[in-house]
Structures are given as structure tokens and as C-alpha cells.
Amino acid sequence: MESNGKKVLLHACCGPCAITCVQALREEGYEVTGYFANPNIHPVTEYFRRREAMQQVAEKLDLPMIWQDDVYDLPGWLKVVHDFGIADNEGYARCGYCYESRLALTCAVASESGFDLFTTSLLYSRHQQHDAIKRIGEKVAGSGDYASENGFGSAFLYRDFRPYWQKGIDLSKEWGLYRQNYCACVFSEYERFEKKLRKLG
Ligand code: SF4
User: Does 140 contact ligand 1 (Cβ within 6 A)?
Assistant: First the structure.
């Protein structure tokens, strides 16, 4: 595919979700770099598994990566959720915080590193609040908070990757990737298995 001359930083929430996002962006001629920054993946052993799956995807796709492991802080993440009173996720406030924190990190790194654009594999998932992710991405990019020293701020690249849902699942199975069965935070794990728990008595 002929290059369109634009560099995009793709926030990758996990390997399986990132596959078709990378492929679709490359089809459009973008030069793609992956960015793994996910302080919301609990517990830390789960973080290792998803990081490893992302590494496998990066190798398969020959995708350059930026790894941001230093933002992983489980106690700090839980404290913010507790202090904001958003653990119950009423009005998707917890997810909103989760999206914004990761998109703000992505925007900051993209701006400082000279990327024209940034986007996220969260836009691939049928289980996420798609419109909220789009709105937050645009808000973060438009805030001006993440302009580099040269006054350069990366723009948010909105794409609806959801039509690639089945293709991404098929490829992740074919490649033998680890596929998680809950979103990421400890609350989502609880919500995923709560019914099973209640059936116990
Ligand atoms: S359910 Fe998923 S998107 Fe929502 S707060 Fe938890 S990890 Fe983040």
C-alpha cells in the first residue's frame, strides 16, 4: 500500500483487538506504531498475559511498539476510582475515566514523539462505549494540553473498526493468541462472573 505520509500512534488495549486496526490503517497508507499503556488490566498476571499476546501480534505484523509499563499502578488506579466514587460505573463514569486516562497518555506520547495522529483499538470492540471513546478522543486532542514544546499536538483519528470484529476473532484464534474473557479491571471481572457466583447460593 502506498504511504499517505502520515504517522499514527495506535493505542492497543490488547493484541486481539489491535490486529485488524493495524491492517485497516495500513490499508489507508498510514505508518502505524503500537502503544501499549493499560493501567486498568487487573490483576498484574493478567497484564503480563495480555502484554505477551500484544508482543506476538507486533511480531506477526512487524509492528513497531512503544511500551509504557511504568504507568501500571493497581493501588493508584483503585484509589482514583474509589475517590471519584465511580466503582459502580453508574452512567459509565468508571469506563469514561478509564478511556480518558489512556487516551490522554496516548495523545501526550503521540504529540511529544511527532506523530500526526493517534487512535485506539478500543474503537474495534463491540462491547465498549464507542461514541464515548470517539468523544473523549476528540476532547483530549482538542484540549491543547498535550501540545509538544514546539506547539505540536497530535490529532485524534476516529475510525469505526467494529466491522472487522469477526475477522479479528478469527485471526487471533488462528494465531493462537490468549483471548481474555472480561474487559480488564477487577470490577469488570466481577461483573462478568457475578451471576455464576450468585448461583452458588
Ligand atoms: S470495564 Fe473496561 S473500560 Fe470499563 S473501567 Fe473496567 S477496564 Fe475500563
Answer: no
- Give all domains of the chain, ordered by start, each with its CATH number: 7-199 (3.40.50.620)
Q: Is the pLDDT of residue 201 over 90?
A: no
pLDDT of residue 148: 87
The whole-number average pLDDT for the span 90-113 is 97
Residue 131 reports pLDDT greater than 90? yes
Contact between 47 and 36 under an 8 Å Cβ cutoff? The reply is: no
Strand partners for 11: 35, 120
Q: Which protein residue's CA is at the shortest distance from atom 6 of ligand 1?
A: 185
Protein residue whose Cα sits closest to atom 2 of ligand 1: 183
